[in-house]
Amino acid sequence: MIIEPGMTAFVTGAGSGIGRGMALALARRGVQVGVCDIRESDAAETVRQIELAGGKAMAVGVDVSVHSSVETAVQTVERAFGEIAISCNNAGISLHGVPLHEISAGDWEWVIGVNIQGVIHGIQALVPRMLATQRPAHVVNTASIGGFQVNPNFLTAAYSMTKYAVVALSEGLHNELQGTQVGVSILAPAAVDTRIHLSERSRPDRLGGATVRPQNHFMGDLLKGSMSPDAVGDRVVEAIEARDLYIFTHPQTRPWLDRRHAAISAAFDKAERLAAMRAGHTHE
Question: What's the rounded Cα separation, in Å, for the pair 23 and 234?
Answer without folding.
Answer: 10
